[in-house]
Amino acid sequence: MKKLPIFVGTGTAMITPFKKDLSVDYEALKRLAEIQLKAGVGALIMCGTTGESSTLEREEKAEIIRVIKDFVKNDCAVIAGSGSNNTKNALIFTRDAYEAGADGILAVTPYYNKTTQDGIIRYYKDICDASPLPVIAYNVPSRTGVNILPSTAKELWNIKNLNGIKEACGNMGQITELKSLCGEMHLYSGSDEINLPILSVGGIGLISVVSNALPEKTQEMCNKWFEGDSKGALKIQLSLMPLIKQLFSSVNPIPIKKYLYEKGLTENILRPPLYAE
To answer: Which class does domain 9-262 fall in?
Structure first.
């Protein structure tokens, strides 16, 4: 059976705004979501790395998904980060996201444990078997310490409910090999500096940090690429590079939160051990 993508184009890896008492600022979250909707993005990715998932409580994650799904309705997809270095917890977070109304799951590889390639396959199989929702795998070795190899990605694509992969390995050779081995796999860029190169080897969209700041520009780049205007898409990608460099000058999401604070959109507050700069 052909697998339909959860979204195409720009998916914004949303921040989680906090109040001064470190509680979640749901009103600010809805304001940020409204900006994204007006820009026409295809998805909001909640409770991921940029959303400081590692310092969110289980109940907070579920409530964030409920609030955003209720706010956006069906105007764009809502995808919930549910990965963990404990498969049991990943299954719990996945079920919570489904019950809260999410449209899909983004599951990062297990971090710190440094599981084997077979362990990665088993991890995603367990999540997909338990999930009523389509699942996107997330490969980000710089944060997790493990790398989904192209041959492993090919095995993952055979899992019925595995819908795609977010690639943030930073290695275009590896990403190109992945597409050559499993050409139909839905590939999303997880590295803003190589958004366009990933689209050029068959990517169908982005899961982007820079789109928190400039969603219209990010979506316009995708639109131009898919319309066949490669020069126009390249012009936008190059114009975004200074901001992308700025947003990754420190640990994500420290710079993007500062940027949004300076625009008057949220407080510049992170949960420890992250601190505002």
So the answer is: alpha beta
User: Tokens standing for 139?
Assistant: 């490969």
Closest of 167, 175, 174, 173 to residue 192, by C-alpha? 167
**For residue 183, is pLDDT > 90?**
no
Q: Scanning the structure block, which residue is given the tokens 């640990």?
A: 251
What is the greatest pairwise CA distance in the chain? 49
- pLDDT-based confidence at 1, cuts 50/70/90? low
Q: Which candidate, 242, 237, 240, 235, places its Cα nearest to that of 203?
A: 237
What's the alpha-carbon Rg for the chain, to the nearest Å? 17
Residues 175, 163, 153, 97: what is their CA dihedral angle, to the nearest 10 degrees?
Answer: 100
- In angstroms, the CA 193 to CA 208 distance is 10
Q: Model pTM greater than 0.90?
A: yes
Residue 98 reports pLDDT greater than 70 = yes
Catalytic sites, residue numbers: 138, 166
Residue ranges covered by each domain of the chain: 9-262
- On whether the CB atoms of residues 24 and 64 are closer than 8 A, the answer is yes
